[in-house]
Design goal:
It is built from three helices and two strands; from the N terminus they run αββαα. With 100 residues, it is mainly alpha-helical.
Amino acid sequence: AGDALICLAAKTLREIAREVDVVARLGGDEFGLLAVECDSAGADLLLHRMRDAFTRRNVRASVGYSMRTPGTGLTGAWQTADTNMYAAKQAKKNPLPGTE
């Protein structure tokens, strides 16, 4: 069942991602979605599409996101998203935490 769930999560992310976005399995049950040229409103829309798609498939997921800024760069944004994902996982909340 674990492998099937991993495959379903990957398929779901590929379905909601835009053509320019990058979806990758980072290890274990963790995935990354790099939304290219995406502003805050676009990220919000993408996250809601993700939540809705997972809900329709009865998949529970903890999601964290962050926006890259000139001050944080891609590495800093990734670390913030990872921290937010673990905070959501700990809180066992459905809302999608994020920062701008």
